[in-house]
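Thread: quick sanity check before group meeting

JM: Hey all, I'm pulling together slides for Thursday and realized we never actually wrote out the predicted structure for the chain we discussed last week. Dropping the sequence here so it's in one place. If anyone has concerns about the input, flag it before I start.
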Amino acid sequence: MTAPFSPAEQQRIVEAIQQAEKATSGEIRVHVEPHCVGADPLARAIEVFAQLGMHQTKAQNGVLFYLAHADRKFAVIGDKGIDAVVPAGFWEETKDLLRNHFAVGDYVGGLRQGIAQAGRQLHQYFPYDGETDKNELADDISFDH
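JM (edit): ok, ran it. Output follows.
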């Protein structure tokens, strides 16, 4: 199985990313793989962040939602620009939101809520500028098998 999501569920996640990015110059990605390479999902998320080129955004405002579905592990990380301005505890609150949804098997709902929450922070600190903003990173979900 390449993903724990049907094509329709994947589309709902991508739509959440597109909606969240409409109001911000920030970039949001979701990466899914069955197993976490290494024991620490945060360390793996940092590797994936670099592999996806997320550190290359102009304002360093990329956010990655990482999910190792078979291992039931996940992480949420933001680049330096967004991490420097979000309120203390924001990443933990976002992980708690995801954890609450994931605990009852609602991965799509959890990701959609987490993406929306990250989008609100990105909008607050990195509002969309129609003059110069462009979609710097793909909105699709990336998968490792």
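AS: nice. The longest helix spans residues 107-125. The beta strands are 27-33, 62-68, 73-78, 142-143.
JM: adding both to the slides.
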